[in-house]
What we know:
The protein has 144 residues and is of the alpha+beta class. The protein contains five helices and four strands. Strands 2-1-3-4 form a four-stranded mixed beta sheet, covered by helices on one side.
Amino acid sequence: MPDLQLIGAPQSNYVWVCRIACAEKGVPYTLVPVFPHTQEVDAIHPLGKIPALRHGAFTLCESRAICCYIDRAFAGPNLVPREPLAAARVEQWLSIVNTARRSSPCSIAPSQRPATLPARTSPSPTSTCCRSSIILANCRKARR
């Protein structure tokens, strides 16, 4: 099977989400560090946004679609539960985080946070950005 390439700036929250998905599944990948609107990104994403994915001749853009592909194409623990109610809860939190109008998803009211949502990010690599931490925590909770 060809190598999986994640294309995008390492500091991007959305690139981090895809990298965490690979780590959770145990999927090896190569990070191709480029910024948005470069020739390599523009060839895959119609709006020139990152991340993008290349897996052999297959290309894909948008972090949600990339994570879905990683979850379904590779062996390892499910990132999104197969049980419909738990999967719907994960999708709900993904939507909330991706459409939040606040400057930081960490500003979600404490009464609205799931029990696993961290109050603040810690310096560990998997919590480099709050958005990744929220998604990861809720996916882990839903998998139980």
